[in-house]
Amino acid sequence: MNSRDDRPADERLDRSLQCLRDVEVPDGLARRALARLDAPERTRRPAPRAAWFTAVLYLAPVAAAGAGALLLARPPHPVTAGREFSHASEIALELPHSGDGVAELALTTHHHRDAAHVRVELPSGVALHLDSDGPPSACARSSCVHHWRTGAPPHRNPLQVVVSEPGRYVIHVTHVSPSASVRERFVVLARRRAVPAA
C-alpha cells in the first residue's frame, strides 16, 4: 500500500464513517441477531394438504365400488336384454333383358328366441316382394320403410326384394326381440344381362 491509499478521499466521507461507528446498537437487537446465528437451522415442513384432497383420496375407491355395485345390480332394459349383432353382405343380381329381378336377402333371424320387430329401409328403385297380406309401409321419394312384427320362430326367411334398374342399392334391415338386436346391411349390385348377338 502506498500513502495515498491510507488517507480518506473526502473529509465528508470520513465524518460519515465516524458517525456510523459511533451509533449504539440496542441490546435487544444484538441479542436477537446473535441468537439467530447460534440457533440450529429448522427443517421446513411441507405445507399441510387441503382437507378436501385427503377426503378425495379416501372416498374415491368407495365411490368407484358403489358405482360398480349399482351397474351390476341394475335390472337390464327389456329390449336390450339380448345381444347386439351386425351383419353385412353383398349380393350380385343379374337382371333379365327386360323386366325386374328378384334378390333374396337371407336375414340372420336365428338369434331370436321370441317374436321380433322387423324394419326394412329400401332405396328408390327397390321394392319389397309382398305377399297378399304385406307389411305396412311408409314411402317417400328417395326411400321406403316397411315394418312388421314376426311370429315366434321359425321366422319367414329369406326376404325378397324386386329390383327394376341396374345399379348399386343399399338396404338396411333391423330386427329386434327381447333376446337379440340385429342390424343388417345388404348391398345389391344389379346389372343387366347382355343381349345375345343374333
CATH topology assignment of the domain at 80-192:
Immunoglobulin-like
**N-to-C series of helices and strands:** HHHHEEEEEEEEE
Stretches where pLDDT falls below 50 for ≥5 residues? Answer: 77-81
| Share in helix | 25-40%
Main sheet characteristics: 6 strands, mixed
CATH architecture of the domain at 80-192: Sandwich
Gyration radius from CA atoms, angstroms: 45 Å
Largest beta sheet: what is the strand line-up? 1-9-8-3-6-5
User: How many strand units?
Assistant: 9
What percent of residues are in strands?
A: 25-35%
Secondary structure class reads alpha+beta
Query: Based on CA inertia axes, which overall geometry fits?
Result: elongated
The number of helical segments is 4
Give the distance, in angstroms, between the N- and C-terminal Cα atoms: 130 Å
Mean pLDDT: 77
CATH class of the domain at 80-192: Mainly Beta
